[in-house]
């Protein structure tokens, strides 16, 4: 992992962590400090976790596996996803 990868993928961690901190800011609950510490650690470590999961998945599969078969965006799959989204 390099800096470019980290900075390109840090936004979801910051958005999610910031939202959690914002929503819990005015509440008093027993483990507030622990919750904030875990949220801050998650904000910083999100890109590292994402990289580790991608690296582990690519150890067991090839990159072309993720662009073919079930993961390919085909018209049939899009229709099935539309039906699923409409029922949920």
UniProtKB/TrEMBL annotation:
Q: Which UniProt keywords apply?
A: Bacteriocin immunity, Membrane, Transmembrane, Transmembrane helix
Name the UniProt record assigns to this protein: Colicin transporter
What species was this sequence derived from? Answer: Escherichia coli
| Molecular functions (GO terms) | toxic substance binding
GO biological processes: bacteriocin immunity
Give yes or no: UniProt keyword DNA repair: no
Source species, domain of life: Bacteria
Tell me where the transmembrane regions lie. Answer: 7-25, 31-53
Pfam families documented for this protein = Microcin (PF03526)
Report whether Phosphoprotein shows up as a keyword of the record: no
């Amino acid at each position: 992992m390099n800096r470019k990868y980290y900075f390109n993928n840090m936004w979801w961690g910051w958005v999610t962590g910031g939202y959690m901190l914002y929503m819990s800011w005015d509440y008093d609950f027993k483990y507030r400090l622990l919750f904030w510490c875990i949220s801050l650690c998650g904000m910083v470590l999100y890109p590292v976790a994402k990289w580790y999961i991608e690296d582990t998945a690519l150890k067991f599969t090839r990159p072309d596996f993720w662009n073919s078969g079930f993961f390919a965006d085909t018209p049939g799959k899009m229709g099935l996803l539309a039906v699923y989204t409409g029922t949920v």
